[in-house]
Amino acid sequence: MFAYTIRRFLTLIPMILIMTFLIFLGMDLTPGDAVSFMASPEAMANMSQAQLAQLRESLGLNDPFFMRYLTWLGGVLHGDFGYSLTSGVPIKDIVLSRIPATLELSVAALLISTFLGTILGLVSAVRKGRPVDHILTITGMIGVSIPEFFLGLVALLLFAINLNWFPIGGRLRPEYTVYWDHMKNLILPALVLGVTMTAGVMRYTRSSMLDTINKDYIKTARSKGLPEWRINLVHGFRVALTPVVVLIGFRLPILIGGSVVIEQIFQWPGVGNEFLGAVRSQNYPLVMMIALFSVFAVLIASFIIDLLTAALDPRVQLD
Amino acid sequence: MDSDVLVRVKNLQTFFYQNGRCNKAVNGVSFDIKRGKTLCVVGESGCGKSVTASSIMQLLPELSRIEKGSEITYFSEKGEIRIDQQKRNGKVMRSLRGSEFAMVFQDPMTSLNPVYTIGYQLAENLQYHTPLNRKERKKRSVGLLRDMGIPLPEERVDEYPHQFSGGMRQRAMIAMAMACNPKVLIADEPTTALDVTIQAQVFDLIMKLKKDRNTAIMLITHDMGVVSELADDVVVMYMGNVVEAGTLEDVFRSPSHPYTVALLRSIPILGKGRDQDINPIRGVTPDPYDRPSGCQFAPRCDFFKEGVCDKCMPDATSLSKTHSVRCWKFVGGSGYGN
Asked: Which pLDDT score, from 0 to 100, does residue A61 have?
């Protein structure tokens, strides 16, 4: 297991290098001067053309492309992500200030969708063809097809405006003193995001579970006289879970990237919201950096998925 | 009541319902499994051998049903149990499976759960049918593997099925089946997925267990060679019916049903060379949804007689105390003309 972990971890390095290269290439191709996001705007405003040229030279901007990439990569590795074009704030500070909100929302939604999705999927598979299965199937279909912005708006209208149970949007307010005040802001977006993700997990769990309970070893388990719950949970669900873990794992990147739509609707001050703003104002460095974070999240997620798959399925490590 | 009889199957009918059609997979099968004896069930693919076995274990797929009028009686130490009347996965069936009845399946590659160790899957059986605690179960599992001739059982007990070879897996399956000393071991083509040398080893093992533990064995196979080696009693099935039944002697020395005769004639003899005459049975098995109206074998039978064989399926005729056959040839006054 240890050797496998190390081996798998080492494969991350070339992938990260390739991704950073592509992102740097993207940034290089975008309009605007590189100086503008390597030096802060305040400093730039007080400079003459000659000074700027000198700055370019001293910053190494006239170097060959590959050299510049290495310099930039060195900066990134040291936590220097450049500056936002619009506000002049270091990108690192912007992203760091947004990540807690995004993490909070995403983790809540991920937990909701994982628990609801796997349990309902399991119930649906075990009760295949019964009323419960039909109801869950129809709900699942609706859930998969309803876009999250629509569900978000309906939820806002119903629970925040008409029923007035929850605040309309935002995350923190100065007058909040107890944690519950804050929770009230979280519940609605987390539920909407969670429920939209639940449908997919549920359908996937159901089909994976149905696939598993038709396997020969389920018949073997039954021939040993085991009770049905044990056959379904210990022999069926445990095996059926592996592909579901992969599906859930690939949702981990929203932990960093944030859900653009939901964050926008609920005015949630997360990374997704910032991303949308950056795209609107053509703030390329910021867009690219958020993309880099997302890429990083995807790579880490696939790393975690591989470890989990190996833990769940003893056949994996040998391959 | 014959005290030798352990399981009596009488007029078993198991039908499958799918897409609004009914497949009479097993249609009126009767036989006895005798205490400590080996019963071989032979027949070609799709003749209902496996369905019969699954019916005894109540391990049928969802869309199938044991019909009214069928009787499967288990003569246990505590009295008779009518298996056909039990709830499919109910308490009685669960307590019988794994402890009194055990089953070994065709393909050991797929019949073990890939994510649990052999030891875990073995101990599971013991957990539900014996009062042993965790430590004792582990010890017993190791002992069982040793009994099955698996080398280094202390180490192999903690390995996963994919670390076992095919033959070893089947041994592990048999260990699992024998864990609680069952009265009946149903082996559904246990060697079909294994190569020939391993086949012999697995059969040796099964026969040794039969002798040591007095386990009755119901062996499903389509290998006549295996039947002649191992069987005490033989049941020949065709299209969901038992066409001939008797002791090994009865069926192999004086095969009576044209299907049995044809089946025995179609076996190539090892050592006779490539020029020997092999007589395959002509035609193919009929579509189970479009069965012949009379005797199921009639369309392929060399002794087919119009007006007799295509009317209806004959009842079983006794040729001796142990030997019976379902063929119009042996029914007196049937118009067959004997």
From this structure: 67
